[in-house]
Specification:
Elements (H helix, E strand, L loop, with lengths): L5 H22 L4 E8 L14 E8 L5 H54 L6 H4 L5 H28 L18 H4 L11 H22 L5 E7 L4 E2 L11 E7 L7 H56 L7 H35 L11
Antiparallel strand pairs: 1-2, 2-4, 3-5
Helix pairs in contact: 1-2, 2-4, 2-6, 2-8, 6-7, 7-8
């Protein structure tokens, strides 16, 4: 998954792009150079071209940005790189959680296949065995088989997309997959050292980006200073010599008065956006905490229902084979229904655990710094 998943590759490319943009801020301070060539000749004398008619010039130039502008660009690039690294970490967690769910689904699918195969080999005495092809229960078994086949195909498609290779028939071995007990030993949601660190860092980066946009609008009120230094080409092939007397320095300054109020309008908009973002993130955190509290209660209820379902399944499997075809059919239907209920409960448990696992910092290795 780390090697071939396209979503992860896109997130890693964003980190690489952020790192390159940060380096480019300093590279823009380096001097530049240009080589130009000119040819001057009358149309009527094109046949008499020689080396004296061509001129080659070498120019050197460099840009000196304002200190505040340069620091703003660098800070924005550093913030972008940090946010891209944290987004990569979040995407890795999300895909890992999806991969674990695929392993759970694969394990449950194999169990249901085995359970259905055992149920179909259940002794069918008397008239039930003779009329098996016309029995509605037989048709229901065939429907279940086709349903399991479609589920297996959907599972294979999901694995191919997640692992980044559709040419392989993936076999998922559930041994060693992580197991949790958040129903009884869940983390303290208010433990900032363990829970929700990545979530808070991403929110902080989003807030800081909004604050940086607001500061950029305020900087439009600052005086604009310009310094231009010009000189003739350093080297020319037409024999012209370079002279220091041709170097000119031009200084300029301007202060925006904003008589139309355009900058003030932009500033008000960014302030409203910042306040709205703060409120939105605060509400998002409140909803997340409420959802986690409900998820913990749901996990506890799920665990009780799962224990009850397992006990019923064990009791039903321990029953002796009934001699009555009707009783055999009833037991078979109860077994398949309980097995389906157990599958649904285990999938629900996996999805509820994912909410805690995503935010539990103790369950994830420390990522490399971008």
């Amino acid at each position: 998954m780390h090697a071939h998943n396209l979503a992860l590759r896109q997130a890693r490319d964003a980190v690489t792009t952020g790192r390159e943009r940060l380096r480019q801020v300093n590279r823009d301070l380096l001097p530049g150079a240009a080589i130009t060539g000119n040819l001057n000749q009358a149309l009527s004398q094109l046949g008499d071209l020689n080396g004296d008619d061509a001129a080659l010039s070498v120019y050197g130039f460099f840009n000196v940005p304002g200190l505040i502008q340069w620091r703003m660009r660098r800070y924005a690039s550093e913030l972008e790189l940090l946010r891209a690294g944290w987004a990569l970490e979040l995407k890795t967690r999300e895909l890992t959680i999806q991969l674990r769910e695929l392993f759970v689904r694969s394990e449950l699918l194999d169990q249901r296949r085995r359970q259905l195969a055992l149920a179909q080999r259940w002794p069918q005495p008397g008239p039930l065995a003779l009329s098996l092809d016309a029995n509605p229960q037989k048709l229901e078994h065939e429907t279940l088989l086709w349903s399991l086949r479609r589920e297996a195909e959907a599972l294979q498609d999901a694995a191919a997309e997640l692992l980044g290779d559709a040419a392989i028939a993936w076999t998922l071995d559930p041994a060693g997959r992580p197991r949790f007990d958040y129903a009884t030993a869940g983390p303290d949601l208010h433990d900032l050292a363990r829970f929700g660190g990545l979530h808070r860092r991403l929110q902080a980066a989003e807030l800081e980006g909004a604050r940086l946009r607001q500061r950029g609008v305020k900087l439009q009120y600052w005086p604009d200073l310009s310094i231009n230094l010009s000189s003739p080409p350093f080297y020319q092939t037409n024999g012209s010599s370079w002279s220091a007397d041709a170097i000119f320095l031009n200084l300029g300054a301007s202060v925006p008065l904003d008589l139309r109020g355009n900058i003030a309008q932009q500033l008000r908009e960014t302030q409203r956006d910042f306040e709205r973002l703060e409120l939105e993130l605060r509400e998002q955190n409140a909803r997340t905490l409420t959802g986690l509290d409900r998820a913990r209660a749901s996990l506890q209820l799920n665990a009780r229902r799962l224990r009850l379902t397992e006990a019923r399944l064990d009791a039903l499997r321990a029953l002796p084979v009934a001699q009555s075809p009707a009783r055999t059919r009833d037991n078979l239907e109860r077994l398949l229904a309980l097995d389906q209920q157990r599958t649904s409960l285990l999938l629900e448990q996996t999805q509820l655990e994912a909410l805690f696992w995503l935010l539990d910092e103790s369950r994830w290795p420390a990522p490399a710094q971008p």
